[in-house]
Amino acid sequence: MTGLVLGVGSPADSDRVGWQVVEGLAAEGEARVRLEALDRPGPGLVSAVTGADFAVIVDAVRSQACPGTLHRLTAIDQLPVPSSTSTHGFGVAEALALGERLEQLPPWVVIGVVTPAGSLPGEAVLADAVGAVQREVTAFSMGSAEGIRG
Predict the structure, then answer these.
(1) Is the dihedral of CA 109, 54, 15, 124 positive or negative?
(2) CA atoms of 53 and 65, how far apart (whole Å)
(3) Residues 39, 68: Cα–Cα separation, whole Å
């Protein structure tokens, strides 16, 4: 089984959290999946996940929740649509919607990390996000439907 953990972001401030989670997984020796960082997803997200058996996508999100909150998002309509000031431009929601229309997506889940404006989350939040991703990888690897979309 070929899984993918895709850290989405940019080099700017809090938008780097997806990359940091991928770096944390690499530092822990996560070998069950391919680890990649993607700068500003756009349609490149569809290309990145094509051919994978499953994808766990990690990205910074804005919400009314407190910074450090993790959101597990499993449907396009749950994903925040970026504002016109998004560093992504063509964001994760639009990319996944395109991939679904093209029927090129593997089963996926997004782990959204609520980040404080203009800064990165602390080490405890990053550790929580790494743990959440590892649980998703385990669920996907074991074929648990609940782990995938439940």
Answers:
(1) positive
(2) 31
(3) 22
pLDDT tens-digit profile of 28-61? 999 999 999 998 777 789 999 999 999 999 999 8
As to burial, measured by CB atoms within 10 angstroms (0-12 exposed, 13-18 middle, 19+ buried), residue 88 is buried
What's this model's pTM, rounded to 2 decimal places?
Answer: 0.88
Give the C-alpha separation, 57 to 54, whole Å: 10
Chain-centroid distance, C-alpha 121: 15
Say how many C-beta atoms besides its own lie within 10 A of residue 132's C-beta.
19
CA dihedral 1, 92, 50, 137 (to 10 degrees): 0
Do residues 91 and 45 make contact, with C-beta atoms less than 8 angstroms apart?
no
